[in-house]
Each structure stands twice: as C-alpha cells, then as structure tokens.
Amino acid sequence: MRVLTVTGYKPMEMGIFKVDDPNIAFVKETLRRRLIPLIEDGIEWVLVSGQMGVELWVCDVLFTLKEEYNVHVGIFPPFNNQEQRWPEPQQEEYRVLCDQADHFQPLYNKDYEGPYQFRAKDQWMLDKSDGCMILYDEETGGSPGYFLEKAKNYQQDHDYPIYYVTPFDIDDTVREMQMEDPNYWNPS
To answer: CA-CA distance, 93 to 95, in Å (whole number)?
Structure first.
C-alpha cells in the first residue's frame, strides 16, 4: 500500500470547540501512533480533503513525521474556498497547512454548488488511494459515516483495507501517555 486517505470527525462532533483544546493533543498522538507503522510499511502519500478536525490534525502530525519519514501530504478539497464559513482560527490553520502540503488542488475549480461535490470527493479519494484510515465510532455515528459506507461498498470489489481509529483508541493513548509520565508513578 502506497497511498492512504484519512478522514474522521469534525471538531464539533467530538465536543471540541477551540483550536487550543487540550484533547486535540490526544487525538493527534493517537493518529501519529497509528500512522507510523503504516508509513514504515510503505505508505508514501496521505490524501485528505482538508476538512476541519481529524483531516487537518492528521496533516499537522504528518508534517512533523516528515522530519523522520519520506511521506507526502496531498490536500484535495471538494471545491474552492471550503473554509469560507469556518471560524477564523480554523481558516488560518487550514491556509497554513495547505501552504505546507506537497500537493494542493481543489477537485472542482469553483465554489460550493451542491452535495454532488462531496460525493464526487469521496469517490475520488477511494479511487486514488489504496486504503483508508477513519476516526469513527459506529455507535455514535456522524459525518464520517458517509465516507465509511462508500468505502465498505468499494471494498466489495477492491482490495481496500479500512483502518479504524475509535474513541477507545484515544482513551488508550491517554492512559499510555499518563503512564509514560514519571510523575504518574511517583505521586507527590
């Protein structure tokens, strides 16, 4: 597998409303821990559409991993100016990450026209990748479910692994990070 697409929840779907929410660090660390073995096994490109939340956070993680690994980031929004209605801090984060991407190109060179652009984006991501990673909880649902449903259907006719990251994985990361802290074992 050489190309992986990553998607998942938007911040609001995870109860995150500020760009400096401390819980983002746990999500990023979980993504980092899941990505490293895949990169070491041959992932060369990670593709995202650049939506708020998991997709932007994974870009941030990947730009850090580029210091050690030869991995490339492609951001392919479904249309121009997708960040236009986002809160200003997320717009700024988006612009910075798009400037750092190895490749950036909207799939439709026009502004939002309709849901067909999102459906086309999902199909494009499936067609251009060898597998996907999705931060999603099937019991909770949410916007990543649309992509997951398409990926499962795509999987019926293609060798297309789906790697899940769940809230339980994030909880595990939190516990592991706490246990890695020497102060955890030596309370004052």
So the answer is: 6
